[in-house]
Amino acid sequence: MNSIFEPVIGLEVHVQLNTATKIFCGCSTAFGATPNSQTCPVCLGLPGALPVLNRQVVENAITAGLATNCQIAPRSIFARKNYFYPDLPKGYQISQYELPICEHGWLDIETDNGGKRIGITRIHMEEDAGKLLHAEESEGGSSLVDLNRACTPLLEIVSEPDMRSSDEAVAYLKKLHQIVVYLGITDGNMEEGSFRCDANVSVRPHGQEKFGTRAELKNINSFRFVKEAIEYEIDRQIELIEDGGKVVQETRLFNADTGITRSMRGKEEAHDYRYFPDPDLLPLNVDSDWIERVRGELPELPAAKRQRYQEQLGLSDYDAEVLAAERPMAEYFERCTALHDNPKACANWTMGEVQRGLNEQSISIGECPVTPELLTGLIARIDDNTISNKIAKQVFDQIWQTGKSADVIIEEQGLKQVTDTGAIEALVDEVIAANPAQVEQFRAGQEKVLGFFVGQVMKASKGKANPQMVNELLRNKLKG
Amino acid sequence: MELTDLNLQQLQEQLAQGSVSSVDATRAYLDRITATNDNYNTYITVCEAEALAMAEAADKRISAGDAAPLTGIPLAVKDIFNTEGVKTTAGSRILGDFVSPYDATAVARLKQQGAVLLGKLNMDEFAMGSSNENSAYGPAKNPWDTERVPGGSSGGSAACVAARQAVATLGTDTGGSIRQPASHCGVVGLKPTYGRVSRYGVIAYASSLDQVGPVARTVSDCALLLQGVAGYDTADSTSVDRPVEDYLADLQGGVKGMRIGLPQEYFIDGLDPEVQQAVEKAIETYRGLGAEIVPVNLPHTDYAVACYYLIATAEASSNLARYEGVRFGRRVDNGKGLIEMFCSSRAEGFGPEVKRRIMLGTYALSSGYYDAYYLKAQKVRTLIRQDFNNAFDQVDLLLTPVAPTPAFKLGEKVNDPLQMYLSDIFTIPLNLAGTCGMSVPCGLTGEKLPVGMQLIGKPFAEATLLRAAYAYEQAGEWQQLRPE
Questions:
Q1: pTM of the complete model
Q2: Is B177 tagged catalytic?
Q3: How many Å lie between the alpha carbon of A190 and the closest alpha carbon of chain B?
Q4: What was the pLDDT predicted at A334?
Q5: Which residues, other chains included, contact A439 with Cβ-Cβ below 8 Å and sequence gap of 6+?
Q6: Considering B153, B183, B198, B345, which one is annotated as catalytic?
Q7: Residues A220, A198: contact at Cβ < 8 Å?
Q8: A111 and A242 belong to one structural domain
Q9: What is the predicted ipTM?
Q10: B153 is catalytic
Q11: Size of interface A-B (CB pairs under 8 A)
């Protein structure tokens, strides 16, 4: 960290919503379809076509607003942002300007330097533009327009300039990403552009209240690039000032290959978007009933889950964080605890064997062949001493492969733990008789030889003997 | 008597009786269009084959006993309505080759009822104008005097009805574009309340002011056509979900006891004496029919034209941004890059009045000017709306002239935009207020030019408006005026 200069960072995030249809028409929003196949007069911007607001988009915006502690505006306005570009069929983007649907929110983040609250200025709804595909110069250099994405719904989430390091920016962005994905309103896929980030970066001498001149960084589409781009930009601005130069207000493009930002357009070339209320759409009224219904349907968010897992289920901070991080995993875990009252075992198995299996096969928790029902069926057999932990791992692998229940597998393969004292005693006696040298060692005080005996007895029982009982019996007999 | 002499109601009766077929009527109109369109230049596109096919289908429907009120009636629409598979130009060069892939809701409703669409009518480019002289396809002419303008922007729609080239037509009215040409051509034109008829598929000029309405030979015909297109449409967020009244049910209810207000600000110096005389005579007729005539005030009238030319042009500057040659319409590409293509396409595609209004509107919305122009105009608009609300606390209707003068000569005002803008001085305030109004013929000048009076109703009181217009029409001597 620079001793003289302090960076000031604010982020603008575009979240593509996963509604089935577009924000102002009934076309599908599915990704990857044949170019221009998911279009109609409205999203093509044909003369005379008119927008009709998709209520689900409003619902998702309210959801996002409530989850980020925003106030939901009872009345908000759609505005036109006017500029010419070939991927913008109407020559304007329908967005919100003066009266957005959500304002005055915040998120708490954590970095190595502790916790911090980051303000959220506003969240508004808008339509996305289409995509341009540029042919090579050798092919004539022409550009093609695909309007499948035109008019798909976006939320723009604008933070306050509250972040003071790239780490804070990344922590905020990850937290925000986690929440919107948790809410189920976006797939959050950064590579496909479902979660995009622009960063406003400036620097000022420590202690100075007035912000420095900012640059807006565009095209940063991964958490790593956000960190790189911001750090590059902070260094660039500090160097510039230290060399006696001045930061100019401009938009800069981040190049992920080189890791540097370069000027895209200056303040003079900045667009005058001539925002004005869209006369084709009525003001949007959201009554308190609507807001309260959405509030009632909000899922428990990761921070709350994490706290609950610790306080009510007795998990460690680390376990709670891991299990709460992603909604499908948390739901899997919670289903397990609902089926079988042993949260710690459920947590261990979910984070251990289940996660290992998922990693090995590169599948998601939703695709896991060991359902919560199957997993808890297995844990129950450990808890009632039917099988040992060791045997349970074998059984788990077989459940994964066959989809059979633990009980069926234990029964079929006779894996039931032996708890009959007499039977175990007989095995213990055999092992002691067969290994007189080791008995001598034990009696001479080398207690670690006990492990050898336990192993031998377990082997003889094909792993089915209750290890605790084996231990006790061996100790008694060896001490003789 | 020729088939084209039958008005909508009469043709409806004859079709129902089987004494006339829709195909016969359609042929008669197509013949008349062929014979007269060079004179009047009313049609930009004539849909002969489509019209005959629709007429045949309508005849089948009629003989099957499945007729709707407009089944088989030959109609035409302003070239601002999208019509599937038919060229839709908005009177502009930039859409010269644009064949629309979809129907406007109003057109779809006419088609559902089995109406016959004869073609697309001339208009000022993008509905910007008061004389039809801003059409890229040459001006439509006034059938009363082809040296004169038919009015605008729905000049083609009004002239077509006057010239008996269609039974009735649809136009659009943003600042008087139905009422003023109806007045100049001696026909009946109605601008419904904003939100009464869907704007979906109507090429936008100024979205908060545009409204679809009928032009017809009689008040009853006007009511019939309005009935056919009015109503809520989920595809237009600004259309109003409110039941449509039966406009014919109470048509003959008369005006006895009705209170009719005369806004003092509309009877001004500079009003053509013959227009004034005709309107004053109409007032006397109403008094004779038992209406109570009351002076009222609309104090912000003076600001209406200025307010309109800020709001309408601001909206237009944005609405017309989509015409840049990328996806549809005229593209002029000289290979000098994207910006050049945008500029050249628009420079060559738009006419001078459209460019003037785009520039005005762009300026009004620009950073630093927005508050002084656009926002202030919106505040004035609120005051004008309040003027009407206050007046309607005292009266049921307002009665005014439609335009300060009868139809003027072609070329007379083209070089004086301000003078041209003032021809809408009495019609513009209604669009700003969003309420309904109509133009009803009320006299002829010494030069045999028609004069119209304007009746203004409360929002969604089209039925009252039509009832008052009908009472006058039946009492007066100006029924079904037609040029020689």
A1: 0.91
A2: yes
A3: 29
A4: 95
A5: A432, A478
A6: B153
A7: yes
A8: yes
A9: 0.96
A10: yes
A11: 103
